[in-house]
């Protein structure tokens, strides 16, 4: 069974504690450990999916190039 990126990110986000910061590389690593081939996806694609289930938070000094996400209570 092949999962699409949306399913992979959703299922992986659920493995993180609520309120914990998550970046695209965290999803990439955790999904790879779970046996998913993440090579076809770039971090921007992963971040787009993360934004569906998490609140965004920008890096220090408001830099837009480094974004963390925080799992939303009661959503994922």
Overview features:
76 residues, alpha+beta, 39% helix, 16% strand, globular
Notes on the protein architecture:
By secondary structure, the chain is an alpha+beta fold. The chain is built from 3 helices and 3 strands, in the order αβααββ. It has a 3-stranded antiparallel beta sheet with strand order 1-3-2. A hairpin with an 8-residue loop joins strand 2 and strand 3. It is globular, with a radius of gyration of 12 Å. The two termini are 22 Å apart. The mean pLDDT is 84.
Number of E strands: 3
What coarse outline follows from CA principal-axis ratios?
globular
Low-confidence stretches: none
> What proportion of the residues is helical, as a percent range?
25-40%
Order of strands, widest sheet? 1-3-2
* End-to-end gap: 22 Å
Q: Give the oligomeric state of the chains in this entry, treating copies of one chain as homo and distinct chains as hetero.
A: single chain
Q: What proportion strand?
A: 15-25%
Helix and strand element order = HEHHEE
Question: In this structure, how is the largest beta sheet organized?
Answer: 3 strands, antiparallel
Structure annotation, total helices: 3
Taking all Cα atoms into account, the compactness measure Rg is 12 Å
Question: Structural class of the secondary elements?
Answer: alpha+beta
Average pLDDT for all residues: 84
Nutshell version of this structure?
The protein is α+β, with helices and mostly antiparallel strands and 76 residues long. The protein contains three helices and three strands, in the order H-E-H-H-E-E.
């Amino acid at each position: 069974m092949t999962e699409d990126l949306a399913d992979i990110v959703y299922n992986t986000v659920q493995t993180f504690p609520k309120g914990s910061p998550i970046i695209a590389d965290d999803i990439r690593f955790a999904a790879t450990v779970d046996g998913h081939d993440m090579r076809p996806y770039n971090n921007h694609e992963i971040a787009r999916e993360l934004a569906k289930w998490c609140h965004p938070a920008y890096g220090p000094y408001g830099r837009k190039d480094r974004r963390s996400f925080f799992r939303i209570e009661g959503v994922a």
